[in-house]
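Ticket #4471: structure export looks truncated?
Reporter: QA, pipeline team
Priority: medium

Steps to reproduce: submit the single chain below to the structure queue and open the exported record.
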Amino acid sequence: MSNTWPALPNIENLIDGDGEITIGCIGPVSCAAVASDGHQALAMLVRRDDENLRQLLMRLEKAIGLACDEDVFIDEINNGSDERV
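Actual output as written to the record:
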């Protein structure tokens, strides 16, 4: 895997537009990534056992795109693993 980080335009646009992402322990989940736009959660992902931080961020990037472009909101914290991301 290359040491160069991929572009993350959905994450950048979210943060530039007063949204936020949080990565870390959330309640009983030892590592999760959450994206919100100030009004609602766009994506809540649980880090998979074999997943590194870059892979988690890439899934978050995709999940934010699904939420913004298709009104599809991924919630792995409450609903379990989601194969769309």
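Status: closed, not a bug. The export was complete when the record was re-opened. Leaving a note from the reviewer for reference: The two ends are 20 Å apart (CA to CA).
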